[in-house]
Amino acid sequence: MKRNIFITGASSGIGKAIAYAFGKNGDNLVLCARRLEKLEEIKKDIESKYDVKVDIYKLDVTVYEEVVSVVKEAVNRNIHIDVLINNAGLALGLDKFQDYSISDMEIMLNTNVKGLLYVTREIIPNMISQNSGHIINIGSTAGMYSYANGAVYCATKVAVRFLSDGIRIDTIDKNIKVTTIQPGIVETDFSEVRFYGDKEKAGNVYKGVEALKPEDIADIVLYSANQPKHVQISDITIMATKQATGFNVHRE
Ligand code: NDP
Ligand code: 8X3
């Protein structure tokens, strides 16, 4: 039987690459993001390439009522979610804590932490009742090494790791796996979002260094999800070759 893979933030970057990797692997997909038009293109393309079913939902993970209604609809359509990939996330701004706007802080917390809580809390009862499931949370090296001007984003990614660890403990008597994937520098729209659409500033982040590609992360997520039933990968950290800690990148 084909697995059902539920991916948040599937309209771009790492989430989109994860969708293609699982589609190619023959899994059915439930893709969510706020930009439905992007998901429509991805659905069309994946279904034309691979023999899988792709369901798409417009979902803002920060709105609890939307999360409840999307999960309810998926469950009503008899979709048992085998793998949940909590990928939706963002950084806004790169500033000293004392100069940060409260609004940017709140959007990061609401998306990266509360969004992950809402989606997981709604999907996990189904996994518990079926006594099977895999939750894969996209953390970051930012959750291992704090860096200047990124205190709040880094804190949200520590929270991702600790939520994974806590949920793993609370579901220890079930056949439920919990994995944290912690990427380093990956070239996506992440920096453009962080710098409010400033392409030049965003481009500088990836100048002089060969960053990871979203597909590199997707391969590792798929690897984690394809382990035998008795094997649980708790966490994997992936950096670019010319990267040491989170913001310690060697540029030529
Ligand atoms: P992108 O900006 O390319 O993708 C972010 C995705 O998150 C988009 O699909 C976006 O969809 C979605 N998203 C953002 N806010 C919301 C929301 N409120 N509700 C639903 N979906 C939302 O960046 P990445 O692919 O790089 O980021 C994906 C994840 O990887 C994030 O959690 C990020 O923190 C993490 N990460 C990224 C790294 C990097 O260097 N790029 C390194 C380590 C971790 P839409 O706008 O359509 O809603
Ligand atoms: C995204 C990578 O190093 O910009 O999590 O924080 S970094």
TrEMBL record:
Keyword set, alphabetical order: Oxidoreductase
Organism superkingdom: Bacteria
InterPro entries registered for this protein in UniProt: NAD(P)-bd_dom_sf, Sc_DH/Rdtase_CS, SDR_fam
GO MF assignments: oxidoreductase activity, acting on the CH-OH group of donors, NAD or NADP as acceptor
Family statement: Belongs to the short-chain dehydrogenases/reductases (SDR) family.
Protein's name in the database: Oxidoreductase, short chain dehydrogenase/reductase family protein
Organism: Pseudoleptotrichia goodfellowii F0264
